[in-house]
Each structure stands twice: as C-alpha cells, then as structure tokens.
Specification:
This is Sulfhydryl oxidase. This protein is mainly α. The protein has 2 domains: 11-56, no CATH class; 77-181, Four Helix Bundle (Hemerythrin (Met), subunit A), CATH 1.20.120. The protein has helices spanning 7-24, 40-45, 47-56, 77-94, 101-117, 121-133, 141-158, 169-172. The structure holds flavin-adenine dinucleotide (FAD).
Length: 195
C-alpha cells in the first residue's frame, strides 16, 4: 500500500504541536487553570488562553495570581502578648502529669528560647530577669501551670495590672477540646531525643 502523501506533513504538524504544548504551558496565565493543566487542545479550545499565552512572549516571567486576602496589619505588642500567653498556658494545660526527662527539658528550653527570640526586645530583657529569679518548674502539669501563672503575674504587676488568682488557672486554661482526647500528650511513648 502506498504511503499517504500527507503523512510527512502530518508528522511535522504533530512535532510542532508537541513543541508548542511544552513551550506555551510555561507562559500561560489563565484564571481557571494552571500551567500543569494545560494541553494544546485546552489552548486551542479557548481562544482567550491562546491569546494570553502568545501575547506574553518567552521571556516574560509568570505573574503570581492576585492575593485576595486583606493586607496584613502589623500586630501590636498587646496582641502578640495575648497570643503568646494563650499558647503558653495551653501548653501548660496539656503538659503531662508525669513528664519524661525530655519533656521537662523541653519546657525549660522553650522558656529560654522565648527569652532570646520573643519579638519584643523590652519583653525579652524583662523575661530573662524573671526566669533568673524564677527558674522553670516543670516536674508535673500542676507544677508547670502554677509556675507559668506566677511568672505571668510578675509581668502583669510590672505593667500595673491585677494578679490573676492562680488557683483558677485550670478553669481558665483547661485541656484542649479535642475529639476523643486526641491532643493529649503521652508521656510514656515519647523517646528522649539525644542532641
Ligand atoms: C513572655 C512575655 C513577656 C512580656 N513582657 C512584656 C513587657 O515587658 N512589656 C509589655 O508591655 N508587655 C509584655 N508582654 C505582653 C503582656 O504580658 C500582655 O500580653 C499584653 O499587655 C496584653 O495584656 P492583656 O491584659 O490583654 O492580657 P494578657 O496578660 O496577655 O493575658 C491574656 C489572658 O490570660 C489570662 N491571664 C492573665 N494573667 C494570667 C495568669 N497569671 N495566669 C494565667 N492566665 C492569666 C487572662 O484571662 C487574660 O485575658 C509580655 C508577654 C509575654 C508572653
């Protein structure tokens, strides 16, 4: 059987089509698809895609889609403080009754790191002094949450605020509301990490 006279032409067109597919998919910006989704048929079926791809040119960097979120507002020192105390009191509430040596070390290290990395210089310096005068007590959940309540009160008083009654700390910061206690820390299953 003789060869179809159009076969060489079809093969050439096929090669060009594959090359275009690889090339254009890197430069296409369309709101409803990503470069990875693209095929030549999706380009040619939607003339708008083809137009936006071709009009960019090979050297044009792909623009990121516009971010729809509101612009972030800088946090105040007070907001940062409230968020940090929330995290710390939640950690203390969730802390195991019988922590491993590693967990006790982690609690101390967390406070030490906070005193070096907390993003407010005045607060850092103050907290370093507080830690020196009140070494971390992390022998049990009760001990750790009472210690944290106490140091939070030291900060409160220095800012002219009332002290919080520490006998109420577990009522204020109870264990997390996680289904089937799935957030509880298991003090027996955690291996001590050697650094
Ligand atoms: C480590 C650290 C050091 C800081 N140092 C400074 C500083 O030097 N200067 C500065 O201006 N700000 C500092 N801040 C921020 C400051 O402590 C407050 O977070 C901020 O002023 C907002 O206060 P607030 O009254 O809204 O409640 P926060 O003090 O943030 O407390 C949040 C909530 O915790 C509860 N609470 C209050 N006291 C206790 C307690 N003792 N135990 C348990 N729960 C309590 C209350 O329900 C309260 O609403 C520091 C924050 C941190 C985390």
């Amino acid at each position: 059987m003789s060869e179809n006279p159009l076969t060489p032409l079809l093969n050439t067109l096929n090669t060009i089509s594959r090359s275009l597919q690889n090339h254009l998919s890197q430069f296409l910006i369309a709101p409803d698809c990503t470069a990875n989704d693209l095929t030549v048929s999706s380009l040619t079926n939607n003339p708008l895609h083809l137009f936006s791809a071709v009009s960019l040119g090979a050297d044009t960097p792909v623009a990121a889609p516009p971010i729809k979120e509101k612009e972030a507002k800088p946090l105040t020192k007070e907001e940062l403080g409230r968020a940090t105390w929330t995290l710390l009191h939640s950690i203390a509430a969730q802390y195991p009754d019988k922590p491993t040596r590693q967990q006790r070390r982690d609690a101390k290290e967390l406070m030490a790191i906070l005193s070096r990395m907390y993003p407010c210089k005045e607060c850092q310096d103050h907290f370093k002094e507080i830690l020196k005068a009140n070494p971390v007590q992390s022998g049990s959940q009760g001990e750790f949450s009472q210690w944290l309540c106490h140091v939070h009160n030291v900060v409160n008083r220095s800012l002219g605020k009332l002290s919080f009654p520490c006998q109420r700390v577990n009522a204020r910061w109870g264990k997390l509301d996680c289904k089937d206690r799935s957030c509880d820390l298991d003090s027996t299953s955690q291996l001590d990490i050697k650094y």
